[in-house]
Structures are given as C-alpha cells and as structure tokens.
Amino acid sequence: MIIRIDYKLYDELAAYAREHLPEEACGLIAGTEEDGERLIKKVYFLENIDHANDHFTLDPREQMEAIKDMRSLGLKPLGNWHSHPESPSRPSVEDIKLAFDSKASYMILSLMSKEAVFNSFHIENGEVTKEDLRIISEEYYY
Amino acid sequence: MTITVAGEKKEYKDGLTLPELIEAENVETPEYVTVSINDEFILTENKATTVLNEGDSVEFLYFMGGGQ
Fold it and tell me: How many structural domains compose chain A?
C-alpha cells in the first residue's frame, strides 16, 4: 500500500504532536483511495482522553464528528495516527492488540530522537506490515 | 426499509435488529465497535435488542487506542 501525505500536513501533525509533549497526541486521517493507493487530504487532531505519555484513546464522540466531517467533504476515513514521545515509530504490543480495523492505516510518529520519524502500518490479525509512506509536495510527487 | 450505514443508503428488511445488521455488514470484531444510531451511542447491553427503523443513520466506530 502506498500512502501519501503532503509535507505541509505532515509538518502540521508533527508540530501538534510536539506541542502536546509529554503526552501522546492522536487523531484520524482522511482522504482518497484509488487503485490501492491512498492520499491523505485532511488530518484530524483529536483529544487523547488518557492524557498519558505512554497511552492514547480517541474520544468516540469526537471520532464520530470527524467521520461526519469527512463525509461532508467527500473524503474517506483512512485510519488513525498517534505519537510515541519516547519510543520508536513502530506499533507496540498494545498498539497491535488494539488494532481492530484491518482497513485502517495505523500511522505512528516517533519523537524519541531529535528528528521525528513517521511510519504507517497495516495491522491485521496481529500481523504488522509496513506501508509505503511517502511525504510529498507538488514538486516531489512519487 | 431504507437506512443509512456509514454514510451510505441501504435497503434492509423491516424489523432488522442491530446484531443482524452487524453480521450483514461484516463488521470486524464487533465487540470492540461502538455503534451510534442517529448520533446516539448504543449501550453494549442494549446492542442485542436494538431494532432499526426506517430512516435510521448508523455508524460503526472502532475503538482506537494504544500505547507505546
């Protein structure tokens, strides 16, 4: 699966996650899907109702509002994202255990080192597959 | 009857129950799915007995959470 995000949206997401340190930040992603390729067109910033540095939970009511907004914009829910303030950009045991939607892309931004690392994963029946995440611009689209 | 499921209008038999809809829609891991009908969340203990009505709008929301 190729999943693309414009660098401006990515910068916005990373800035939001940094602003919310030391807590994990989280949200949803929406966009389009064609021929097995996903393009993120909107990032949703939702409250981490756990307010913890090692755990996140999305608020179902905010989740529902975001999904309604996606529909109104003609976008498809593509998955979720969250930050790992102190660990790598890979799904933890708990992330895998709590990944119930096999259609979703699970995106993880690691802030453990100076440079943020962003990856996207498909998780199904406990199996994790790294997706081909591409941070793009109009000039550098691949 | 016509109901809206995840934003899409669909035809189902009258008297359709929520468990029947969950099965028909192939909802994965339904025990971890929050259901809303017309913007109202359905309590887990009421899922088995909830009956859909004409014009209802249903959303299935997966629990989304994790830890590092």
Answer: 1
Task: Look up residue A72 and give its two tokens.
Answer: 């109104």
Two tokens, residue A105: 């892309």
What whole-number distance in Å separates Cα of residue A5 and Cα of residue A1?
A: 13
Phi, psi of B17 (to 5 degrees): -90, 160
Q: Mind telling me how many Å the CA of A140 is from chain B's nearest CA?
A: 32
- Sort out which chain B residues have CB atoms less than 8 A from A98's CB and list them: 63-66
Phi/psi at A70 (5° precision) = -55, -45
Residue B67 has its nearest CB partner, among A64, A92, A100, at A92
pTM of the model as a whole: 0.92
Structural domain B2-62, CATH architecture = Roll (3.10)
Task: Report the sign of the C-alpha dihedral through residues A17, A138, A77, A62, in that order.
Answer: positive
Q: Would you give the DSSP letter of residue A138?
A: S
- Burial level of A131, CB count in 10 A (0-12/13-18/19+)? middle
Q: Give contacts of A57 with chain B, Cβ < 8 Å.
A: 63-65
Q: What is the pLDDT of residues A41-81, one digit of tens each?
A: 999 999 999 999 999 999 999 999 999 999 999 999 999 99
A141 in any annotated domain: no
Query: Mean pLDDT across chain A, nearest whole number?
Result: 96
| A110 assigned to some structural domain | yes
Q: Which of A65, A73, A87, A98 to mutate to test the interface with B (most CBs of B within 10 A)?
A: A98
Which residues lie below 8 Å from residue A64, measured CB to CB, with a gap of 6+?
A: B36, B39, B59, B61
